[in-house]
Amino acid sequence: MKLLLTDSGIINQSITDALVDLLGKPIAEAGALYVPTAIYAKPIGAEMAYRTISGQEPRSPMTELGWKSVGVLELTALPSLDRELWMPKVREADVLLVGGGDPLYLHYWMEQSGLAELLPSLDVVYVGLSAGSMVMTPRIGASFVGWTPPGGGDDSTLGLVDFAIFPHLDYPGMDNTMAEAETWAADLPIQAYAIDNQTALKVVDGTVEVVSEGHWRLFDA
Protein backbone atom coordinates (compact mmCIF):
# COMPACT_ATOMS: atom_id res chain seq x y z
CA MET A 1 0.00 0.00 0.00
CA LYS A 2 1.23 3.45 -0.97
CA LEU A 3 0.15 6.47 1.05
CA LEU A 4 -0.52 10.11 0.24
CA LEU A 5 -1.39 11.77 3.54
CA THR A 6 -2.78 15.23 2.87
CA ASP A 7 -4.10 18.10 4.92
CA SER A 8 -6.78 19.26 2.49
CA GLY A 9 -6.92 16.80 -0.38
CA ILE A 10 -5.43 17.15 -3.85
CA ILE A 11 -5.17 20.91 -3.56
CA ASN A 12 -2.25 21.85 -5.82
CA GLN A 13 -0.18 20.64 -8.77
CA SER A 14 2.65 19.17 -6.68
CA ILE A 15 0.24 16.95 -4.74
CA THR A 16 -1.56 16.03 -7.97
CA ASP A 17 1.75 14.98 -9.52
CA ALA A 18 2.57 12.89 -6.44
CA LEU A 19 -0.80 11.14 -6.70
CA VAL A 20 -0.32 10.33 -10.39
CA ASP A 21 3.17 9.00 -9.64
CA LEU A 22 1.78 6.69 -6.94
CA LEU A 23 -1.03 5.50 -9.22
CA GLY A 24 1.32 4.80 -12.09
CA LYS A 25 -1.34 5.98 -14.53
CA PRO A 26 -3.55 9.00 -15.20
CA ILE A 27 -6.35 9.82 -12.78
CA ALA A 28 -8.85 9.35 -15.62
CA GLU A 29 -7.87 5.67 -15.80
CA ALA A 30 -8.17 4.97 -12.06
CA GLY A 31 -11.15 3.78 -10.03
CA ALA A 32 -11.70 5.36 -6.61
CA LEU A 33 -13.65 4.55 -3.46
CA TYR A 34 -14.46 7.47 -1.16
CA VAL A 35 -14.83 6.94 2.61
CA PRO A 36 -16.85 9.78 4.23
CA THR A 37 -17.28 8.13 7.65
CA ALA A 38 -15.08 10.45 9.76
CA ILE A 39 -17.17 13.54 9.05
CA TYR A 40 -20.33 12.21 10.73
CA ALA A 41 -18.79 12.83 14.16
CA LYS A 42 -18.82 16.58 13.43
CA PRO A 43 -21.83 18.92 13.76
CA ILE A 44 -21.78 19.70 10.02
CA GLY A 45 -21.30 16.04 9.11
CA ALA A 46 -24.41 15.44 6.98
CA GLU A 47 -23.96 18.56 4.86
CA MET A 48 -20.22 18.09 4.47
CA ALA A 49 -20.62 14.43 3.49
CA TYR A 50 -22.96 15.44 0.67
CA ARG A 51 -20.67 18.19 -0.57
CA THR A 52 -17.57 16.00 -0.60
CA ILE A 53 -19.27 12.96 -2.15
CA SER A 54 -20.79 15.13 -4.88
CA GLY A 55 -17.54 16.98 -5.55
CA GLN A 56 -18.76 20.35 -4.32
CA GLU A 57 -16.11 21.13 -1.70
CA PRO A 58 -13.37 23.10 -3.50
CA ARG A 59 -11.38 23.63 -0.28
CA SER A 60 -10.66 19.90 -0.10
CA PRO A 61 -10.86 18.32 -3.57
CA MET A 62 -10.89 14.52 -3.76
CA THR A 63 -13.85 13.05 -5.63
CA GLU A 64 -14.00 15.71 -8.37
CA LEU A 65 -10.60 15.01 -9.95
CA GLY A 66 -11.90 13.19 -13.03
CA TRP A 67 -11.65 9.59 -11.85
CA LYS A 68 -12.66 6.75 -14.17
CA SER A 69 -15.21 5.82 -11.50
CA VAL A 70 -16.05 6.85 -7.93
CA GLY A 71 -17.90 4.76 -5.36
CA VAL A 72 -18.78 5.42 -1.73
CA LEU A 73 -17.62 3.06 1.01
CA GLU A 74 -19.53 3.84 4.23
CA LEU A 75 -17.77 2.01 7.05
CA THR A 76 -20.66 2.15 9.52
CA ALA A 77 -22.72 -0.04 7.17
CA LEU A 78 -20.11 -2.76 6.69
CA PRO A 79 -20.45 -4.72 9.97
CA SER A 80 -24.04 -5.58 9.02
CA LEU A 81 -23.03 -6.92 5.59
CA ASP A 82 -21.32 -10.08 4.39
CA ARG A 83 -17.74 -9.25 3.47
CA GLU A 84 -18.29 -10.75 0.02
CA LEU A 85 -20.55 -7.78 -0.75
CA TRP A 86 -17.90 -5.09 -0.23
CA MET A 87 -14.42 -6.58 0.06
CA PRO A 88 -14.02 -7.32 -3.69
CA LYS A 89 -14.78 -3.65 -4.47
CA VAL A 90 -12.07 -2.54 -2.06
CA ARG A 91 -9.54 -4.93 -3.58
CA GLU A 92 -10.42 -3.81 -7.11
CA ALA A 93 -10.05 -0.09 -6.38
CA ASP A 94 -6.97 1.78 -7.52
CA VAL A 95 -7.32 4.35 -4.76
CA LEU A 96 -9.05 4.79 -1.41
CA LEU A 97 -9.96 8.41 -0.70
CA VAL A 98 -10.49 8.77 3.05
CA GLY A 99 -12.06 12.03 4.11
CA GLY A 100 -11.69 14.24 7.14
CA GLY A 101 -13.63 14.64 10.37
CA ASP A 102 -12.88 12.93 13.66
CA PRO A 103 -9.86 10.58 13.55
CA LEU A 104 -10.91 8.45 16.53
CA TYR A 105 -14.41 7.93 15.11
CA LEU A 106 -12.81 6.90 11.83
CA HIS A 107 -10.41 4.58 13.64
CA TYR A 108 -13.26 2.92 15.53
CA TRP A 109 -15.23 2.19 12.39
CA MET A 110 -12.16 1.04 10.47
CA GLU A 111 -11.68 -1.56 13.20
CA GLN A 112 -15.36 -2.47 13.51
CA SER A 113 -15.83 -2.82 9.76
CA GLY A 114 -12.77 -4.99 9.17
CA LEU A 115 -11.13 -2.44 6.87
CA ALA A 116 -8.25 -1.88 9.31
CA GLU A 117 -7.37 -5.57 9.14
CA LEU A 118 -7.52 -5.51 5.35
CA LEU A 119 -5.51 -2.34 4.71
CA PRO A 120 -1.94 -3.71 5.00
CA SER A 121 -2.64 -6.37 2.35
CA LEU A 122 -4.14 -4.00 -0.23
CA ASP A 123 -2.41 -3.09 -3.48
CA VAL A 124 -3.95 0.36 -3.48
CA VAL A 125 -3.05 4.01 -3.15
CA TYR A 126 -4.44 5.35 0.12
CA VAL A 127 -5.17 9.09 0.06
CA GLY A 128 -6.05 10.61 3.42
CA LEU A 129 -7.42 14.06 4.15
CA SER A 130 -6.91 15.46 7.66
CA ALA A 131 -8.49 12.78 9.91
CA GLY A 132 -8.09 10.33 7.04
CA SER A 133 -4.35 10.97 7.27
CA MET A 134 -4.11 11.12 11.07
CA VAL A 135 -5.78 7.71 11.48
CA MET A 136 -2.76 6.03 9.87
CA THR A 137 -0.45 7.26 12.64
CA PRO A 138 0.22 5.61 16.03
CA ARG A 139 -1.27 8.52 18.02
CA ILE A 140 -3.07 11.76 17.29
CA GLY A 141 -2.17 13.59 20.50
CA ALA A 142 -4.49 14.57 23.33
CA SER A 143 -5.40 17.94 21.83
CA PHE A 144 -7.12 16.25 18.87
CA VAL A 145 -9.26 13.90 20.95
CA GLY A 146 -12.94 14.69 20.44
CA TRP A 147 -15.22 11.70 20.02
CA THR A 148 -14.33 8.72 22.22
CA PRO A 149 -15.38 5.12 21.61
CA PRO A 150 -17.82 3.18 23.79
CA GLY A 151 -15.99 2.20 26.95
CA GLY A 152 -13.45 4.98 26.56
CA GLY A 153 -9.97 4.92 25.12
CA ASP A 154 -6.89 7.01 24.48
CA ASP A 155 -5.51 8.80 21.43
CA SER A 156 -4.18 5.65 19.71
CA THR A 157 -4.90 5.03 16.04
CA LEU A 158 -3.81 2.47 13.42
CA GLY A 159 -0.03 2.92 13.55
CA LEU A 160 0.58 2.02 9.90
CA VAL A 161 3.19 4.80 9.81
CA ASP A 162 5.62 5.65 12.62
CA PHE A 163 5.00 9.40 12.89
CA ALA A 164 2.19 11.73 13.96
CA ILE A 165 0.48 14.49 11.97
CA PHE A 166 -0.64 17.96 13.08
CA PRO A 167 -2.90 19.22 10.26
CA HIS A 168 -4.26 22.62 9.20
CA LEU A 169 -1.16 24.49 10.31
CA ASP A 170 -1.87 28.23 10.49
CA TYR A 171 -5.22 27.77 8.74
CA PRO A 172 -7.38 30.93 8.95
CA GLY A 173 -10.00 30.73 11.69
CA MET A 174 -8.35 27.81 13.47
CA ASP A 175 -6.05 27.68 16.50
CA ASN A 176 -3.58 25.32 14.82
CA THR A 177 -0.59 27.63 15.13
CA MET A 178 3.05 26.61 15.08
CA ALA A 179 3.21 27.32 18.82
CA GLU A 180 0.31 24.88 19.35
CA ALA A 181 2.09 22.34 17.16
CA GLU A 182 5.24 22.63 19.27
CA THR A 183 3.27 21.96 22.46
CA TRP A 184 1.45 19.03 20.82
CA ALA A 185 4.67 17.45 19.53
CA ALA A 186 6.41 17.79 22.89
CA ASP A 187 3.92 15.32 24.39
CA LEU A 188 4.53 12.61 21.77
CA PRO A 189 7.35 10.03 21.89
CA ILE A 190 7.53 9.78 18.08
CA GLN A 191 8.49 11.98 15.16
CA ALA A 192 5.73 14.34 14.11
CA TYR A 193 4.93 16.55 11.14
CA ALA A 194 3.01 19.81 11.23
CA ILE A 195 1.58 20.46 7.76
CA ASP A 196 -0.51 23.17 6.15
CA ASN A 197 -3.20 22.84 3.50
CA GLN A 198 -0.65 22.98 0.66
CA THR A 199 1.37 20.04 2.02
CA ALA A 200 1.16 16.25 1.87
CA LEU A 201 3.30 13.32 2.98
CA LYS A 202 4.05 10.68 0.36
CA VAL A 203 4.97 7.34 1.96
CA VAL A 204 6.30 4.36 -0.02
CA ASP A 205 7.84 1.35 1.74
CA GLY A 206 8.22 3.39 4.91
CA THR A 207 10.12 6.24 3.21
CA VAL A 208 8.54 9.66 3.71
CA GLU A 209 8.72 12.44 1.13
CA VAL A 210 7.27 15.84 1.91
CA VAL A 211 5.34 17.30 -1.03
CA SER A 212 4.65 20.96 -0.41
CA GLU A 213 3.84 24.30 -1.97
CA GLY A 214 3.29 25.72 1.51
CA HIS A 215 4.99 25.30 4.87
CA TRP A 216 5.56 22.45 7.28
CA ARG A 217 7.85 21.32 10.08
CA LEU A 218 9.29 18.03 11.29
CA PHE A 219 9.58 17.54 15.07
CA ASP A 220 12.05 14.91 16.29
CA ALA A 221 10.88 12.45 18.91
Tell me about this structure:
This protein is of the alpha/beta class. Strands 3-2-4-5-1-8-9 form a 7-stranded mixed β-sheet, sandwiched between helices. The chain is globular.
Strand order of the largest sheet: 3-2-4-5-1-8-9
Tally of individual helices: 7
Largest sheet: 7 strands, mixed
Distance between the termini: 25 Å
In short:
The protein is an alpha/beta fold. Helices cover 26% and strands 22% of the residues.
List keywords for this structure.
single chain; 221 residues; alpha/beta; seven-stranded mixed beta sheet; three-stranded mixed beta sheet; 26% helix; 22% strand; globular
Topology of this protein?
Elements: E1 2-6, H1 13-23, E2 31-35, H2 45-53, E3 69-72, H3 83-92, E4 95-98, H4 103-113, H5 115-118, E5 125-129, H6 131-134, E6 163-166, H7 178-186, E7 191-195, E8 199-204, E9 207-212, E10 216-219
Parallel strand pairs: 1-5, 2-3, 2-4, 4-5, 6-7
Antiparallel strand pairs: 1-8, 7-10, 8-9
